Amino acid sequence: MSGLINYLSCGLLWLGMLVKAPDLIRHWRDPYLRVICVLLALAGACFFLGAPPTVGAVNRLSGVPNLAAPLTYASITAYSASSQVLIVYWRGGPHVHRTARRWIVAYTIVLVGIAVMFALGDTPVERRTDFDTYYATTPFTAEMIVLYLAGHLAAVSVTTVSSLRWARQVHGWLRAGLVTLGVGSLCGAGYSLTKLAAVVAGWFGRDWTKLGTTVSPAAAGLGAVLIVVGVLIPLAGPRLTQRRQARRTYARLEPLAHELDELLTRRALRLPRPRFSSPATRLVWRQTSIHNALGHLDAFFDRALYERTLEAAARTTGGAEQAEATAWAAVVAAAVAEERTGDPDGTPTDALDRAPSTALLVPIADALTRSPLVAAARVRAGTTEGSTRA
After folding, report:
1. Least packed by Cβ within 10 Å: which of 166, 175, 205, 358?
2. Do residue 237 and residue 299 come from a single domain?
3. How far apart are CA 91 and CA 86, in angstroms?
4. Residue 361: which residues within 8 A CB-CB, separation 6 or more?
């Protein structure tokens, strides 16, 4: 189980990066997308490099005891900088590039400090899990540890405050993402604080190693999960909303599609049904088939029936759009019955010269099943059809 949590957290973060990779390829000039991918890549690298098996492999292959420690600290520092840059680009503003450069420069200095301190320090004994507490009192190495922890704590603290403060000003998916990101950053602060507590305890002769080897990784893993979810929520949320709306609209169009089903089949007006397609594609397929049927029926649309039903619906419903949808539903139901007879004499002499818009299709479908005016128009059309056939 050694390193399992690290590798699982790394896999989750890099999976999020792979999800965003296609968007980055299409819009590689977008700095926001670049920062997101860098953030996820660096966060995953932190967990990968910090896993005890990876630590042992890096130390063994390099021949330098504990080289994995400054590499892990460097990745954590770079991740801290990327989280700040992400918030900067996320919020935008007139000085976004200047502010981002300042954060990058500040954490570049921290990276240089980590390298210099490690080179000046002496760490001959390999420590895969408790490097921080074991070398807490070693000259220069202790300063390196405090430097990276302070840099990380500063970054996650600013990210937490910025995210939660900004979340109070927005709504929807963006707010949910910011709150999740803020809570994840707060968990990241728990990692730094527990590590610092264990290090400071070592300065006073106390052994709090367990705090840094058990609580800190758990806080970091939970923070990683919440951070990747917080970053992806504003990106994936609107897509989920669109898919849900497409499925709902597709289902609500069922009464209208059923009304036109016999005509679509008999006249071969329905397009081939798409297989293994998205809800949006299925919705477009149903709307296109409906429009094909309505285009075939336009010569049978009775203007007089439309105007009578519109006037009656306006008196009963009180809404202009609902009245128009009811009038169109009555006209469509009557036109389907008239077209079925195949009798040119049944075609109205004063036909409507237009078809309903796509925005009206759902209200029309609702009116087909709910409006008594439409039911009456269907009965009259059926009676006329029976008289014509007789």
Report:
1. 205
2. no
3. 9
4. 253, 256, 287, 290
Q: Are 113 and 87 in contact (CB under 8 A)?
A: no
Per-residue pLDDT tens over the stretch 205-217:
888 888 888 888 8
Residues whose CB is less than 8 angstroms from the CB of residue 179 and which lie 6 or more positions away in sequence, other chains included: 163, 164, 167, 230
User: The whole model's pTM is what?
Assistant: 0.74
End-to-end CA distance of the chain: 83
What is the identity of the amino acid at 185? S
Cβ distance 188 to 152 under 8 Å? yes
Q: What dihedral angle (degrees, nearest 10) is formed by the CA atoms of 282, 287, 289, 295?
A: -170
Coil, helix or strand for 351? strand
Phi, psi of 310 (to 5 degrees): -60, -45
- Could you tell me if 377 and 305 are in contact, meaning their C-beta atoms sit under 8 angstroms apart? yes
pLDDT tens digits for 240-267?
899 999 999 999 999 999 999 999 998 8
Amino acid at residue number 92: G
Phi, psi of 22 (to 5 degrees): -60, -40
Which of 372, 379, 376 shows the shortest CA–CA distance to 316?
A: 372
Question: In one letter, which amino acid is 320?
Answer: A
The Cα 297–Cα 110 span in angstroms is: 73
Domain boundary among 219, 241, 263: 241
Does a structural domain hold residue 30? yes
Helical H segments across 253-370, by residue range: 254-259, 261-266, 279-297, 303-317, 320-341, 361-370
Shared domain check, 111 and 62: yes
